[in-house]
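Consider the following assembly input.
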Amino acid sequence: MVENLLTEKLTAADPMLPGLFRIHRILKESYDTFTVELVSLEGYQTFPFEAGQFNMLYVYGVGEIPVSISGDPLHPETLVHTTRVVGTVTRAMRELKIGDVIGVRGPFGSAWPVQAAKGNDLVFVAGGIGLAPLRPALYQILAQRDRYGKIVLLYGCRSPEDILFRKELEKWRARFDLEIYVTVDYANTRWHGNVGVVTKLIPKAPFDPLNTIAMVCGPEVMMRFTAIELQKRGVNPDNIYISMERNMKCAVGFCGHCQFGPTFICKNGPVYPYSQMQNWLTMWEI
Amino acid sequence: MKTFDAILKETKFFQDLKPEYIDIIAGCGSNARFDPGDYIFREGEPANTFYLIRHGQVVIELHDPRRGQIPIYTVHEDDILGWSWLFPPYKWHFSARAVSLTRAIALDGACLRGKCDADTDLGYELMKRFAAIVIDRLHATRLQVLDIYG
C-alpha cells in the first residue's frame, strides 16, 4: 500500500516538470494564428505522441497553457504546435524568436481512434483552429491510405483569411484519394468557394454513414450541431469522436479545473466518443 | 432524353411526391443556364420563379452600399433556390449569382401558386417541403451569426 502510494507520488511528480525545448521554426498561419516547431534541449531525439494529444506549453515568466499537437506522429523529431493568439500566454509566445526556450509537459490525454477506424470511411469535420488537432490524425491516416475507405475533410472557418494550413490543404486537394470541402461564414465576392456553416456540408459529403468514423474538432457549439447532422445522415453516435476543451491546468487529473461532469478533460479526454458526452453538452451548469 | 418529371422525381426535394403532382410541377418547368457572374435574380425584382440547381454553384448575396455585394450562402447541385415566389409581396429579398457555370430547372412559381390555391393538397405538400428548407437555412444562419470561431 505504502509502496503503491510512493509509486503514484513519483509518477505524479514527473509530469509536472516541464522539459526544455528550443524554438526551431515559427510559421505564420494567419493574421492571428501561428505554428511553432520545437526541439528538445535535453537530448531527446524524438517526442512520441498520439494524434489528438496535447502538451502544456510554458512561456517562462508568463504562464502555461494547453495546446494540441499539430505535427506528424510519424515524424516526432520536432514537436509542432499551432495556436491562436487569444490571451496573455499566446501573445507572449508569438513574440518569441527562433532559439528561445519554452517549457513543455506532456503528451497528455486521449487520442483520435486512428487504428480502430481502419476499414471505415472517415469524415473529419474541423472548425477554425480545430483543424490543428486533427492534422496529426490526417498525417497518420494518409501514410497508410489503403487501410481506410473514403476520406473526407470538411473545414469551416470564419473567413478566407482564417483558413489554416493552406499549402497543405492545396496539396491534399490535389490527391485523388481525399475529398476536401472548405466553407467560410463571411466572405466578399473575391471568394469563389462555399459560404455557409460547416454543418451544411455534411448532407452531401460522400461517405457511407453505416461504415463511417467521424472525428470532429472545433468550438463546442459547432461540434454539437455537427454531431446532430452526422446522426441525421445515419452515423452512429458511438462512431463520432469529438475533442473537448476546458481550463486545463495540471493536465493529469489532480487539480480538477477541467472537470466536466464525471470526467477530467485533461486525463480522460480531450478526445471522447460523442455518445459519452452528448447529454452533458446540453447542460447549462454541471 | 430525360423528361422534367423524371428528373424531378430523382431529386431529394420532390422525393415521394405523388406522380400527378410531379406532372403538374414539371409542366411549369423550363431549362435555364447561367454563366459565371450572371445574376439569376436580383433583390427587389418580382419573384415568380424558383430553381432546382442541376449543376454548378450559386451564391445568395445581399447588397450593402458601403461594402458592396455580401455573399451570404452558397447553394449547389440538387438544392432549391428561391422561396420568395411563395409569399407576398412576391419579390426577391436577396440576389443570386452564378459562381460557376450553372444549369437549373426553372419552375414557374406564379403558375404554381395558382395551382396550389386550386389544389390545397398540392399546396400543403409544397409548403411542407419549403418549410423544411426554410427551417434548415434558419438553423444554419443562426450558427453563422453566432460567429463561433471568433
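The CA atoms of residues 62 and 88 of chain A lie 7 Å apart. Ask yourself how this observation constrains the way the partners meet.
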